[in-house]
Amino acid sequence: MTQRVAIVGGGLTGLAAAWELREEADVSLFEASARLGGKVAMSLVDSLMLDEGADAFLARVPFATQLATELGLSDDLVSPAVRNAYIHAGGALRPIPSPQVLGVPLEPAAIASSGLISERGAARAARDLEGHDAPIERDESIGSLIRRRLGDEVLESLVDPLLSGINAGDVDRLSVAACTPQLYAAARADASLIRGIRAQLASAARDPDAHIFHSLVPGVSRLVEVLAERLGGIVHTGSRIESIDQDPRGGWSVDGERFDAVLLCVPAPVAVGLLRDAPTMFGAIEFSSVAMLTFVVNPSSLTCTLDGSGFLVQRRSGRLLTAASWSSAKWAHVGDERRFVIRASVGRDGDLRHRSMEDAALIKAVLGDLVDTMSTPIDVRDVRVSRYPDALAQYRPGHIDAIASARSELPHSIGVAGASYDGVGIPACIDSGRREARALTEL
Ligand SMILES: Cc1cc2nc3c(=O)[nH]c(=O)nc-3n(C[C@H](O)[C@H](O)[C@H](O)COP(=O)(O)OP(=O)(O)OC[C@H]3O[C@@H](n4cnc5c(N)ncnc54)[C@H](O)[C@@H]3O)c2cc1C
Asked: How far is it, in rounded angstroms, from Cα 163 to Cα 227?
């Protein structure tokens, strides 16, 4: 008999889960708001249709690219027009030294000339190649691993800005296994992190010209639009689920309607509110708050270099601005000769200042930071503020094992998927939704 499956949450995780089961189960997807996509959204700024949050996804983790291809969107997949990026340090924008992986320099001798690391810091990083540490055996924080292997300077000046740009976290409290699996695998394989990463790259035989990111035209939200069209009537917007209880006939009663299985694709605090005996670990997951300010500016007002995807700002600067993306330099399809798009990010673990600022004050402060860091006047045509309170899960050391153990406490016909558990990036969310959906129906 066809199983009835309820999917709660219509972000990309829930949509991917529904897509996975569309032909094998009788699926209903319930989304609380009037709009699908959750944290992935697109809206007009100065008449340009622009992504609000996510504007790209990793190409190396294949699940988003694969889904786009399944949906017939391969012709709309695009790669960045530029490869390099900057870090703001010592009053100037400085190119991120290459080659590097997640901020770990693969040629430490070369980084002393970057203006980002002192001679002493570069020499300390080079000691990693002597392999004084043992290969690691268990998860720890990214900070403790990098400080031990390459020193404090590499962590604070290179790794922290790059990773903060991804999940707005504090590297001294983030799990290396859950947040940076590539670094974890390298540290487990070799007493030298640099050597471990070099070996990974050599064995992957990756095309050196392959792009790290993909996006879609006009934006990542295209995935949401097409999934919504293709899923059709199984998707119910404006349907906030309030209760999930055991049904006396077997299975689950979701706001009074009976289902054989339920997949919760909502943030962990929502899942905790819906499940009677939610594992305590789900309630302990912490989140950071961020905001994205999308500025459409007059390109002729800009006097600085724009030959990269943008820049990151070090935590120690104390600035509100954490990163800026020069979207019109990064993506050929964003903006035009009259409209240059800059996306500015604020907020990270331990910095909630933006939350108490009204939009006008936030815009003024962030514009001030942009003018200062880019050393240019900026003539703003239009600006949009998108706020994401408690949005980005902060995986602490031990996260992967704790999630596996918490999942084993759930009844077999209840699953959880999405950014609170299995990775915040879009490919990871898509994989989580599809995998957990399949697991529920394979019982
Ligand atoms: C500012 C920002 C920028 C980002 N940039 C990138 C990027 O460039 N690349 C990348 O890969 N990732 C990026 N991410 C991460 C990525 O966007 C998210 O991790 C991902 O979209 C989360 O998807 P999700 O479906 O798991 O959760 P969500 O998007 O949070 O979806 C959950 C859904 O559940 C719904 N819901 C909640 N409660 C209920 C209920 N009771 N009943 C029914 N529905 C409910 C919500 O309305 C929501 O639609 C970014 C995130 C942010 C915040």
From this structure: 30
Note the CATH architecture for domain 98-204.
Answer: Orthogonal Bundle (1.10)
Decide whether any atom of ligand 1 lies within 6 Å of the 108 Cβ: no
Q: Is 208 a residue whose pLDDT tops 70?
A: no
pLDDT digits (tens, 9 = 90+) for 92-151: 999 999 899 999 999 998 898 889 999 999 999 999 999 888 889 999 999 999 999 999
Domain boundaries, the chain: 4-38+221-285+396-441, 42-83+211-219+287-394, 98-204
- Ligand 1 lined by 417 (C-beta under 6 Å): no
Q: How far is the CA of 397 from the centre of ligand 1 (A)?
A: 23
Residue indicated by tokens 């290969």: 135
Q: What is the pLDDT of residue 109?
A: 85
Mutation to probe ligand 1, out of 33, 39, 312 (largest number of atoms < 8 A from CB): 39
Distance 304 CA to ligand 1 centre (A): 34
State which fold the 4-38+221-285+396-441 domain adopts. FAD/NAD(P)-binding domain (3.50.50)
- Which residues share a beta bridge with 287? 393
What Cα–Cα distance (Å) separates residue 378 from each residue in 232, 312, 314? 44, 18, 22
- pLDDT digit string, tens, across residues 159-183: 999 998 788 999 999 999 999 999 9
Q: What is the pLDDT of residues 404-439, one digit of tens each?
A: 999 999 999 999 999 999 999 999 999 999 999 999
CATH 3.90.660.20 fits 42-83+211-219+287-394, yes or no: yes
